[in-house]
Amino acid sequence: MLYEMLVLGAVLFIAALIFILLRNPQAPGAMPFFQAYLLLVMLGYFSWFWTHGGQTVAMRAWRFRVEGADGRPLRFAQAGLRFVLAWFSVFSVAGLLWAWFDHDRKFLHDRLARTRLVMC
């Protein structure tokens, strides 16, 4: 996750720079729009990589790949669902502890999105 945060931090830095150059960040109402924009950038980042090869840059370094439960590449809707559900898993203890008790060792977001993380 540390590698992922470093890469994602760079992506968000560039996205924030583009936002600041195109719009006054101190304008009234700019902050909620800015936050939504960054969330969409993160969704785009993960969805793109998960649907095109199943690996983000950090996942390639650790030789992990995400795929559908049936072994097929993820569709965009499936990747988006996994992204949204992963937010709940990361910020809740139950979502992360789920893998300890799951018979396939899947995280809750993988179970609900019908995806799996595999070593490659």
Secondary-structure topology with pairs:
Layout (H helix, E strand, L loop, with lengths): L1 H21 L7 H22 L5 H6 L1 E5 L7 H15 L2 H9 L6 H6 L1 E5 L1
Antiparallel strand pairs: 1-2
Helix pairs in contact: 1-2, 2-4, 4-5
Descriptive overview:
By secondary structure, the chain is mainly alpha-helical. The protein has one domain. The protein is 66% helix and 8% strand. A two-stranded antiparallel sheet has the order 1-2. Helix 1 packs across helix 2, helix 2 crosses helix 4 and helix 4 packs across helix 5. The two termini are 17 Å apart. The relative contact order is 0.12. The mean pLDDT is 93.
SSE sequence, one letter per element:
HHHEHHHE
How much helix, percentage-wise, in residues?
Answer: 55-70%
Given helix and strand content, the structural type is mainly alpha
Mean pLDDT: 93
Q: Could you say which overall geometry the principal axes of the C-alpha atoms support?
A: elongated
Cα distance spanning the termini:
17 Å
Q: Into how many domains do the coordinates divide?
A: 1
Number of helical regions? 6
Q: Give the spatial strand order of the biggest sheet.
A: 1-2
Tell me about the largest β-sheet.
Answer: 2 strands, antiparallel
Sequence stretches where pLDDT stays below 50 over 5 or more residues? none
Quick one: how many beta strands? Answer: 2
Give the structure's gist in a few sentences:
The protein is mostly helical and 120 residues long.
What features would you highlight for this structure?
120 residues, two-stranded antiparallel sheet, mainly alpha, 66% helix, 2 strands
